[in-house]
Specification:
Distance between the termini: 83 Å
Largest sheet: 21 strands, mixed
Radius of gyration: 27 Å
Structural class: mainly beta
Length: 390
Amino acid sequence: LRVGPSLSPGARPAPEVEASDVRLRVALWPLLRGRFDVRGLSFRDGRIEQSGEPMLTDLALDGTLGGGDEGGHRFDGRLTGRADVLGGARFDGTFDSRILADRVELTGIGVDVGPGRVEGSGRIAGLDTGEASVDLALRGRFGETVADGTIRADLLDDRTTVDFEIDAARIDFDELATLAGFDARSPASARARAVSWSVFPTARAAEPVARGETAALVARGSLRAREARFAGLTLTGMATAIRFEGGTVSFDDAAFELHGGRHEGRFRVDVEDPGLPFELDSRLSGVDVNGLLSAFRPDLADTLHGTGVLAIDVRGRAADASTDGTVVGRAELRVEDGRLSGVALLDQISSALSAASGRQATTAFTLLAAGFDLRDRRARTDDLRPVSYT
């Protein structure tokens, strides 16, 4: 079986489907009476490609059909294969559905993907009009990540729009990157990079993604998590609006709490540019500086204490591997009512605070503030402003 792209001039590129060992099981008695009543469908070695890039491969289906009354045809079965769009993760899914004249009701879906599982229900409508829509309500667990969500996709002639809402008890972005196979040591396909870049923009090597003549995709939605883990940090009360359009992914109004502080900001990255140009505008206020430093650099634990404000406004290219770097911008740091411990580690700052290096183990201050120019992987300041008690 092969379902190829439309040969009509100007037709929108569509996924191509191939399968071998395709079998239809038919009911004998209706067949003898001249009616073709399919009772089962199966195939092996199936694959789905988009613009020459594999999306799903090594597919195998075993399905059973029944019914045929006004309630529609029942179609249940099992589908297994490999999700190339997710770094080649294997999946094993079962489904219960009912095929009606104008829609397909998905009464039950259960899919095991690697160490994760997704369950839910939904419907596919508009099959009789050529402008299909998909509505899904899902619950997923991948390792430590547990989330519920709703997805609606409208497949129109000139564009595909996706609206979604995701609520999670916990999201571990670090673990998800590993489970999905997003490891720079194992190159993935261009299609996998196009998907992964939208969530993990620095995880992929700088290889071009073929744009192709595809219909426009617009996705928008929200993500909320009571707890999230990212780059080794634990975030709480996370909420952000997400939008994908014109090859750009935007995380707007990104808010969360971290080590007693509150973050607000936005992040945008062009996932269709192999250099991954991005913009980051971030402000973290009221944060426990020692807690934040200890999370990033355990060797600097208990060296700087206080309540801090950190603001960053930068732009650059996340996939650039140049030693000079491409990230440029500005950062502002302000720490109040703090202290420096282990002055031998911070002689220059200690001197600015009039600390006697080697004779004083702790230097207390009311304010430590500075503005930094970020360029060539360095942060330079010429306005360090320390105010000490003594």
